[in-house]
Amino acid sequence: MTATGIRMTADELLHLPDNGMRRELIAGELHEMPPAGGEHGFVGNRAQLRLGIFLEQHPEIGGGLFAAETGFRLSRNPDTVRAPDIAYVIEERLSQARVPGYPEMAPDFVVEVVSPGDRAHEIQRKIDEWLQAGVQVVWVIYPTTRSAMVYRTDGKVALLHADDTIDGEPVVPGFTCRVGDLF
């Protein structure tokens, strides 16, 4: 992720022309990310597919999944807009998220897939921002080590390896899969 030094608001970000880069706004500063690459996209798609199939099979859970292009406004003045690789919003809040611009809310569950160019301090900053904004569960998936870290609002953190089971509790009750199945 590259800081551009350009200061702007979320509304200005929303109206920028597409330049092929993913963009986030962090404390009012524009950050751009080059396309993440094949492994990142493959792993992110597998995670979203597994979650999506589970939600289709369990309509009583409801809620909705959002793709990587979805920015969520986490703060104002200065504005912060973050776009996770996968976001899930519970049914009771879904109408707040399905808006034309950036939803002024944090999702309930976020998945971040680490790219080769990601730096540890950037990943940690993003995790901290998600949790402070109200995300209940954050998965950080590491394709190079075939592992995942799970962060929860109660402060629990778990390192999981390929043979371990990852879950969506308490946000997506009943959802589990083997970490290795995400790769």
Brief digest:
This protein has 183 residues and is of the alpha+beta class. The protein has a single domain (36-182), classed as Alpha-Beta Complex (tt1808, chain A), CATH 3.90.1570.10. It has helices at residues 10-14, 38-57, 94-97, 120-133, and strands at residues 2-7, 22-26, 29-33, 64-66, 72-75, 80-82, 86-89, 109-113, 137-142, 147-152, 157-161, 165-168, 172-178.
The biggest beta sheet is recorded as: 6 strands, mixed
* Integer average pLDDT: 93
* Major β-sheet strand ordering: 4-7-8-9-10-11
Our estimate of the beta-strand percent is 25-35%
Element-by-element helix/strand order? EHEEHEEEEHEHEEEEE
Give the CATH H-level superfamily: tt1808, chain A
CATH architecture title:
Alpha-Beta Complex
| Overall 3D form | globular
CATH class: Alpha Beta
Poorly predicted parts: none
Q: How far apart are the termini?
A: 23 Å
Question: Which fold does the CATH topology refer to?
Answer: tt1808, chain A
**Radius of gyration in whole Å, from Cα?**
16 Å
Helix content: 10-25%
Q: With helices defined by DSSP (H or I, 4 residues minimum), what is the helix count?
A: 4
Number of domains: 1
Oligomer: single chain
Helix/strand/pairing category: alpha+beta
